[in-house]
User: What shape does this take?
Amino acid sequence: MWQALKDHHAKVKDRRFETMVDADRATGFVAQTGDMRLDYAKTNIDADGRALLIDLLEQTGVAAKRDAMFAGAAINETEGRAVLHTALRNIDGDPVIVDGQDVMPEVRDTLDRMAGFADDVRTGRFTGQGGQITDVVNIGIGGSDLGPAMAVQSLAPYHDGPRCHFVSNVDPADVAAVLRSCDPATTLVIVASKTFTTIETMTNARTAQAWMGQSVADTGAQFAALSTAADKTAAFGIDPSRVFGFEDWVGGRYSMWGPIGLSLMIAIGPDAFRAFLHGAQSMDRHFQSAPWQENLPAMLALVGIWHNQVCGYATRAVLPYDNLLARLPAYLQQLEMESNGKGVSMDGADLDVHSGPVVWGEPGTNGQHAFYQLIHQGTRVIPCEFLVAARGHEDDLHHQHQLLVANCLAQSEALMRGRDLDEARSKVADKFSGDELERQARHRVFKGNRPSVTLAYPKMTPEVLGQIVSLYEHRVFVEGVVLGINSYDQWGVELGKELATALQPVVEGKQSAAGKDGSTAALVEFLQMHGVS
Ligand code: F6P
Assistant: This one.
């Protein structure tokens, strides 16, 4: 399946794709839905390469698997579960049947309950011991943190509710810093955990409970829970009226569309939250119906596959020229790497190509003054994904926004064009001559021919954020199907969890480190010498 693409790559890999970027390519190598445009013209993918890539979708049955996912089939085969985060935003769509039952009435009911509670908190109908809620603290980790934390930050211009804080790390520095900034009498704590067993979350939740208990008589009254485990939320002492449940067909890293998004809903209000869902739903419909060449998730996935599995570029940088999306790279790290960071295919055989890439990034222009040096002149090629809005929210500072946009476009142009030795020489010819001119010029050469894609949209709004996140979710799905892996389990996080549980009594000094490897035993001893136990 891969050979034709590898052969094609071998043929074209040394050409300068810059020479192909004419006006036709600028319209032919884009995909657009509504006002969102994905430009992949600045890559080495040509019409033949694209046809071969699209063949991958046909050969691996992406369309049938996509339809099975939307229809509620148990495509998470290792856990025997449906994958139905799309149902959470199917708010005005058709029934979705799981095990013979339409799940949509319950989805809508939960959304309405969330909206009722969010309104109560926002309007002061729900109060803490000290009156109106001023602060909401979401305690969760992974998918129970990164999605809502990213979205709350991305939609900051739409906030008109209480302040929202996020605690995730088991490092007490995290919870302590947040609690220090809140008044327990006017704080709502939301414990967000699909399983309600995650040790980091439960430890932080108990810390928050003790903090609140010092000054609030009924701490349980100021706690809410977001979980699939009603028995465990009850055992924690949270009243069922403030428990928002969901089903196991929602994966943790795909869960911000339902109860896990409660903090976002409280921050921006139920109407804006519904707009966020509508944005995602519109991308779902586009993914379900657009021909592959016009299909944003499919094309974004294929560009990723071309760069990672075919060209062998091991990482991809996500570079939002939109400061509101500062947490998007962190969010995508879980979405993409926990989903597609797997070495065996669905049937248990080793993959015959690499798993998904390392995903990383920071907002532009900050990254330009940090790691872009490596992207431009390092020895490895790093495909870049730029995100940019036509307008910001600071109308009075629009000229500054124009500078941001110019920087974004300049970076993709610079990566593609580079600067050859002649041009480099001419830059310094007035300062140097002879051998020194040659030496100085070589330091100023940019090889160029470095690929990037740009996702452009009018302005960050709840709808646009919904579209972007849904786009990336479906990109992960397509990549996973083509690689033949299960994007919806995460067995790779288990071993570390088990070993941490076993190591805790050793660290505390209650058990000896005998039996541990020499390095671990010596580190325990060193940390104990310095006060860990
Ligand atoms: O890291 C493993 C993981 O299970 C993630 O998939 C999940 O998002 C996170 O832990 C948190 O899980 P929970 O919501 O059950 O606390």
Notes: The pocket of 6-O-phosphono-beta-D-fructofuranose is lined by residues 141-144, 193-195, 198, 201, 252-253, 338, 490, 493 (CB under 6 Å). DSSP finds 21 helices and 15 strands in the chain. The first strand starts at residue 30 and ends at 33.
